[in-house]
Amino acid sequence: MSNVPETLRYRDSHEWIDPTQSPSPVGITDHAQAELTDVVFVDPPKVGTQVTAGQQVCVIESVKAASDIYAPVAGEIVAVNDALSGDPGLINREPYTGGWIFKIKPSSEAEFDALLTPEAYTKHIA
Amino acid sequence: MSVPDSLRRTPLHAVHVEMGARMVPFAGWDMPVQYTGIVDEHKAVRQSVGVFDISHMGQFIVSGNGAEAFLNRVLTNNIAKLQPGQGQYTLLLNAQGGVIDDLIAYRTSEREFYLVVNASRIDADWQQLESQLTEDDDVLMANASDFTAGLAVQGPKAREVAAAVFGSTDSFPEHNTILVSMTENGPMWLCGTGYTGEEGFEFFMPAETAEGWFRKIVEAVKAAGGMPCGLGARDTLRLEMGYPLNGNDLSEQRTPLQAGLGFFVDLDKGEFTGREALVAQKAAGLPDKLAAFRMTGAAPPPRPHYPVVSGGQVVGEVCSGTQSPSLSAGIGMAYVPLAAAAIGSTIEIEIRGRRFPAEVVKKPFYRRPATS
């Protein structure tokens, strides 16, 4: 069974965001990392980029395929996880902690309401 | 997700699903791409041992007094050099010298040959062989593909697995050799070949016996510290060795000379299909050549069809490309003009609009550490 933490919000394209932190870290779910298999490269977005919800912001590559990563909410990308350039496998090993990909400063708190709850996401991947 | 009816299943399909494999379409078959993870499976084969289902591959039996002469007329390597029990890598060409398939031909006896061909080319190969057969050839061809299952056991501990499964290492075939034994269910072929660069064997058996053998081999593989492996690891392993994949690196549009497989073409053995075209191409000079390249900095993995750039111009596209688990670097192969194909040349691979530097390198990408 995939791990779907209670405190996070999700997109149906398998990104998670942590609304309890500001700025909010974004990554891919445990389910997504298992589907993708070994992540070997992360092409991070540029810090300072303004994004809209659902906008494609970066690409992560597994042995098998390249996958687009979408912004869960609108806002500004304020940080990227530099540890991933040396160790992209963090995304597989720690999808919700060390494997975060970028941090976003949401343009409004209301942005989170449009995302899937843990229950809804669990149903989505069932 | 349901499997389209058009996809074929090997006799081990249900066992793969039971063992948790992720199934994907490959060459018209629903095959396991991985059980746990491509990198883990890849490393298991390099460090201990892995077992692959290769039942989708095809097997032809060519026999008769004229079998040797016939095969020498249709295949590029010199089959007359094989003693019973020996095998060789060889190519089946069209009249233009293009590669219909690359295959392994074994001589199982003075007048009988066993050909192991690629899954996606079974029909094309059969048609080509049949079309070259004349009334005067004293040759009988049989297609055993539908009744035969295959397993590949690969890795430094393959011998240990053979001992556990067969009860002795007497039955471990040396490189490029074949052992045939009759069982109550039919013949069994044990071949000293593989597609990973590691020691090992490929084992073909009657389809109805495949599940029993597979379970027994998986048990022995696990006991030796290895694991069952999917096609994902098979692809990264073969690419690290620079072995071409039909459909990616080989096609009917290019010759074995362009693919760097001239070693398996014997232009002096006499007439064979495609020979004239190869002689002419050799005289005229090759238009391009399959080069092996390695990404030189941090870069996304190169993948098939990415543009290849030399001197600022797009000169080709990636045929095979992946992230090498052994080297932790992107590796690939591409047909490029001769000037760009020299070892040490710098090229670029265009990935989503950005160009990343790569260096043309010698094959294989990976060399097995010397054992003491």
TrEMBL record, chain A:
<feature type="domain" description="Lipoyl-binding">
    <location>
        <begin position="23"/>
        <end position="105"/>
    </location>
</feature>
<dbReference type="GO" id="GO:0009249">
    <property type="term" value="P:protein lipoylation"/>
</dbReference>
<dbReference type="GO" id="GO:0005737">
    <property type="term" value="C:cytoplasm"/>
</dbReference>
<dbReference type="InterPro" id="IPR017453">
    <property type="entry name" value="GCV_H_sub"/>
</dbReference>
<dbReference type="GO" id="GO:0005960">
    <property type="term" value="C:glycine cleavage complex"/>
</dbReference>
<keyword id="KW-0450">Lipoyl</keyword>
<comment type="function">
    <text>The glycine cleavage system catalyzes the degradation of glycine. The H protein shuttles the methylamine group of glycine from the P protein to the T protein.</text>
</comment>
<dbReference type="Pfam" id="PF01597">
    <property type="entry name" value="GCV_H"/>
</dbReference>
<dbReference type="GO" id="GO:0019464">
    <property type="term" value="P:glycine decarboxylation via glycine cleavage system"/>
</dbReference>
<comment type="similarity">
    <text>Belongs to the GcvH family.</text>
</comment>
<dbReference type="InterPro" id="IPR033753">
    <property type="entry name" value="GCV_H/Fam206"/>
</dbReference>
<dbReference type="InterPro" id="IPR002930">
    <property type="entry name" value="GCV_H"/>
</dbReference>
<dbReference type="InterPro" id="IPR000089">
    <property type="entry name" value="Biotin_lipoyl"/>
</dbReference>
<dbReference type="InterPro" id="IPR011053">
    <property type="entry name" value="Single_hybrid_motif"/>
</dbReference>
<protein>
    <recommendedName>
        <fullName>Glycine cleavage system H protein</fullName>
    </recommendedName>
</protein>
<comment type="subunit">
    <text>The glycine cleavage system is composed of four proteins: P, T, L and H.</text>
</comment>
<feature type="modified residue" description="N6-lipoyllysine">
    <location>
        <position position="64"/>
    </location>
</feature>
<dbReference type="InterPro" id="IPR003016">
    <property type="entry name" value="2-oxoA_DH_lipoyl-BS"/>
</dbReference>
TrEMBL record, chain B:
<dbReference type="GO" id="GO:0004047">
    <property type="term" value="F:aminomethyltransferase activity"/>
</dbReference>
<comment type="similarity">
    <text>Belongs to the GcvT family.</text>
</comment>
<dbReference type="Pfam" id="PF01571">
    <property type="entry name" value="GCV_T"/>
</dbReference>
<dbReference type="GO" id="GO:0019464">
    <property type="term" value="P:glycine decarboxylation via glycine cleavage system"/>
</dbReference>
<dbReference type="GO" id="GO:0008168">
    <property type="term" value="F:methyltransferase activity"/>
</dbReference>
<dbReference type="InterPro" id="IPR006222">
    <property type="entry name" value="GCVT_N"/>
</dbReference>
<dbReference type="GO" id="GO:0005960">
    <property type="term" value="C:glycine cleavage complex"/>
</dbReference>
<dbReference type="Pfam" id="PF08669">
    <property type="entry name" value="GCV_T_C"/>
</dbReference>
<dbReference type="InterPro" id="IPR028896">
    <property type="entry name" value="GcvT/YgfZ/DmdA"/>
</dbReference>
<keyword id="KW-0489">Methyltransferase</keyword>
<dbReference type="InterPro" id="IPR027266">
    <property type="entry name" value="TrmE/GcvT-like"/>
</dbReference>
<feature type="binding site">
    <location>
        <position position="202"/>
    </location>
    <ligand>
        <name>substrate</name>
    </ligand>
</feature>
<dbReference type="GO" id="GO:0008483">
    <property type="term" value="F:transaminase activity"/>
</dbReference>
<dbReference type="InterPro" id="IPR029043">
    <property type="entry name" value="GcvT/YgfZ_C"/>
</dbReference>
<dbReference type="GO" id="GO:0032259">
    <property type="term" value="P:methylation"/>
</dbReference>
<dbReference type="InterPro" id="IPR013977">
    <property type="entry name" value="GcvT_C"/>
</dbReference>
<comment type="subunit">
    <text>The glycine cleavage system is composed of four proteins: P, T, L and H.</text>
</comment>
<feature type="domain" description="GCVT N-terminal">
    <location>
        <begin position="12"/>
        <end position="269"/>
    </location>
</feature>
<dbReference type="InterPro" id="IPR022903">
    <property type="entry name" value="GcvT_bac"/>
</dbReference>
<feature type="domain" description="Aminomethyltransferase C-terminal">
    <location>
        <begin position="289"/>
        <end position="366"/>
    </location>
</feature>
<dbReference type="GO" id="GO:0005829">
    <property type="term" value="C:cytosol"/>
</dbReference>
<keyword id="KW-0808">Transferase</keyword>
